[in-house]
Write a structure and sequence with these properties.
Length: 220
């Protein structure tokens, strides 16, 4: 049987490191899990679709997912392997609609970690249930995030904390940055070296009282 693999990782789980192929480690792991299952079923993998750092809240943003469905209508594959139901999306209506669309053209889905095969009626029922769970978890995450923001805002206003919501600002050794720049390195090379964007580096320098003159960093 000709088969495809679909893998998605959300922006929430952005990996600090990527593999030599440029993929997130989670993506490579998910692909290999699906490949092993497909090989075990003697299916021929003809295509792999990857949405890296893409939310499942709407298929509108899942470009590779859309391409996969379009290819399915061209009869390229008969089965799609996916790691889990929640990797197929987190929008209940869209997930059920797509499963029905694929079912009607003779295609099945196989969710490896949950051992769900939609070529059977019980598999379709279980997928339907887990699709509800996937959307519910997305809503719960959003609600928890909002509650966290509101609680942190209350503590800041009450003077109970000086923390701010969001990622902790990455530390930069400004002395090293200044030395590199004044020795002729480009901003782009410095950015790659310290793994911080050029605008952020320049903003930190300005905040620390430095200015830029003729390609050098000087005290303002």
């Amino acid at each position: 049987m000709k088969a495809a693999i679909y893998v998605r990782i959300s922006p929430t789980y952005r990996d600090k490191e990527e593999t030599i192929t440029g993929m997130a480690k989670r993506i490579e792991s998910a692909l290999e899990i699906c490949r092993r299952k497909a090989r075990g079923e003697d299916d021929e993998i003809v295509e792999e679709y990857v949405d890296q750092y893409v939310s499942g809240k709407s298929q509108e943003h899942m470009k590779e997912f859309q391409r996969m469905v379009q290819d399915a209508h061209r009869n390229h594959v008969q089965r799609i392997y996916c790691r889990r139901v929640d990797r197929f999306g987190r929008n209940l209506n869209e997930m059920i609609k797509t499963e029905l669309e694929l079912h009607n053209i003779g295609m099945s889905l196989y969710f490896v970690e949950e051992n769900i095969d939609t070529s059977t009626e019980i598999g379709r029922i279980v997928m339907n249930i887990l699709s509800h769970v996937a959307e519910w978890k997305r809503v719960e995450i959003l609600e928890n995030t909002q509650r966290g923001r509101e609680e942190l805002k209350r503590k800041i206003e009450a003077g109970l904390t000086d923390k701010r919501f969001g990622r902790t600002a990455k530390k930069i050794n400004l002395r090293s940055v200044i030395d590199m720049k004044n020795k002729g390195m480009t901003w782009a090379n410095i950015s790659d070296y310290v793994n911080v964007s050029v605008p952020t580096i320049q903003r930190r320098l300005k905040d620390a009282g430095y200015a830029f003159e003729r390609g050098h960093v000087v005290k303002a």
